[in-house]
Design a protein that fits this description.
- By secondary structure, this protein is of the alpha/beta class.
- It folds into 2 domains: 91 residues, no CATH class; 262 residues, NAD(P)-binding Rossmann-like Domain (Rossmann fold, 3-Layer(aba) Sandwich).
- It is built from 17 helices and 14 strands.
- It has a 7-stranded mixed β-sheet, with helices on both faces.
- A hairpin with a 2-residue loop joins strand 2 and strand 3.
- The longest helix has 34 residues.
- It is globular.
Length: 469
């Protein structure tokens, strides 16, 4: 046993709620002691967490780096690894080393793609067609102009798609949103890590064979490939450190419920350990659009104009709901605005896992590391559509100015943003929120007229017939 677990509380139980409450309070204390006290005093964390995650962004407008560092330190200090001889702190699990797994390699049989192409609604967009789609997305408010410009630069420099100088580590090799298919199509060497599930690895290996790159995975064969990061940290770390070339550690893992917070802590610990041994290592993350972000004033102005021009039906729904439905996304003139797109159904463990990733991106970039962090669009992934309410809300989201992307579109679009950020590393902005807002592909959540939670129920109601087909 070498399992990453939550610490025991005073009652002896391991509680994800206690961990989340404590970490958020510790993070807030670095910038807003009153907000920290409020988080620490929250009795019902499972339903009350929303306002405290918003407070992290509000307090972080000027103190974002301090909040990120304090939050990460709290996770490192509190999380533990359960071993046969007892518990050890998460950060110390690597001290004894570990036996690296065997390695299996799958070589692609295709020719490398040397032009950026993005699937969209049954078409494959490239060249002028892709440029027009980027313009249309910007006009619709689905992506930020900076996102479109990054993709245009990758299109203008197709040699950037050759990632032969990197070892792209895809933690979550089977993830629908991960860059593995795109990178293998471009001829990259991809180090894939995911759970030991034969059906998953059969699918990943088939993708590798169709591509032009090389897939490297832990295991003696494709049939036995995979490792559970929650129980195999020391061996995985040793295996990664033995890889030649410059590592790009890409975090695309997901797990349901409380396991996601544990997994986020585990992956963060691996990243810290590998970067300490190999400081040239780059990091890559996808930020979820269903979170809280500070956004620039032009996004606020766009959303505010849409609210002023809303339909009569929307005005009546707002009025007859005692102003609870279809409320404005921002106060008029806010700069920056707070785009609060948290979805209660995703829960506090999901919010904490994604916030750990954002914190690590901020701290690593400030320390001089190459970091790729992009806000991804709402996407019809299996993990999202398995929730009936979210599936229905996504089906009706277009009625409120939000575009939900298909996985193939998001996958290739976000891979292009990864390439751009590896080729053009940015130094840290004075405020963390400016880095997080740059290049965002939020699907319109930042520029919709309505505060997303105030439209969620109506979107689900309108989208339910399509979701249950």
């Amino acid at each position: 046993m070498n399992e990453v677990v939550f610490p025991r509380g005073a009652d002896g139980r391991r509680s994800s709620s206690e961990l989340g409450r404590a970490v958020v309070a510790d993070a807030l204390r670095a910038a807003d002691p009153a907000a920290a006290d409020a988080a620490a005093a929250e009795r019902d964390w499972r339903t009350g967490y929303l306002r405290h995650f918003r407070a992290l962004v509000e307090a972080g407008l000027d103190g974002g780096y301090a909040i990120a560092a304090a939050g990460l330190e709290s996770v490192r200090r509190r999380m533990v690894v359960e071993q046969p001889g007892g518990e050890v702190p998460l950060g110390s699990v690597f001290e004894a080393g570990g036996e690296p797994p065997a390695t299996v390699t799958v070589t692609g049989e295709g020719k490398p793609e040397r032009e950026l192409a993005v699937p969209w609604r049954g078409e494959v967009l490239r060249g002028d067609a892709l440029l027009r789609r980027l313009d249309a997305w910007v006009t619709a408010g689905s992506i930020e102009a900076s996102c479109a410009e990054m993709v245009r630069e990758v299109m203008a420099n197709p040699d950037w798609l050759d990632l032969s100088g990197h070892r792209l580590v895809v933690l979550g090799a089977g993830a629908e949103m991960g860059p593995l298919p795109a990178a293998l199509g471009w001829g990259a060497t991809v180090v894939g890590i995911d759970l030991p599930r034969p059906e998953l690895w059969a699918r990943v290996a088939a993708t590798a064979r169709r591509g032009a790159g090389t897939l490297i995975a832990p295991g003696a064969s494709v049939e036995t490939a995979g490792v559970d990061l929650l129980g195999g940290l020391p061996g995985v770390a040793r295996w990664l450190l033995d890889m030649p070339g410059r590592l790009v550690l890409g975090n695309y893992v997901y797990a349901p419920g409380a396991a996601y917070a544990r997994l986020a802590a585990a992956v963060d610990a691996v990243a810290v350990h590998v970067m300490a041994e190999r400081p040239e290592t780059a990091l890559a993350f996808l930020a979820t659009p269903t979170d809280v972000f500070a956004v620039p004033g032009d996004a606020v102005a766009h959303a505010t104009a849409r609210f002023r021009d809303r339909s009569r039906a929307a005005r009546l729904a707002h009025l007859f709901s005692a102003e609870r439905l279809l409320t404005p996304n921002y106060p008029d003139g806010a700069d920056p605005g707070i785009a609060d797109s948290l979805v209660p159904q995703q829960g506090p463990n999901y919010a904490l896992a994604k916030r750990i990733q954002r914190w690590r991106a901020a701290v690593a970039r400030q320390a001089g590391a190459t970091v790729s962090l992009s806000v991804a669009p709402p996407t019809r992934t299996r993990s999202v559509t398995s929730n009936r309410l979210l599936a229905a809300a996504y089906a009706g989201a277009h009625l409120f100015g939000v575009e939900v992307f298909e996985p193939a579109t998001s996958n290739r679009l976000m891979a292009a943003l990864l390439v751009h950020q590896l080729r053009n590393p940015r130094t840290a902005a004075p405020q963390t929120w400016k880095d997080e807002a740059f290049g965002a592909a939020h699907g319109g959540l930042w520029r919709t007229a309505y505060q997303p939670r105030s439209a969620l129920g109506l979107a689900a109601l309108r989208g339910l017939p399509a979701a249950v087909r």
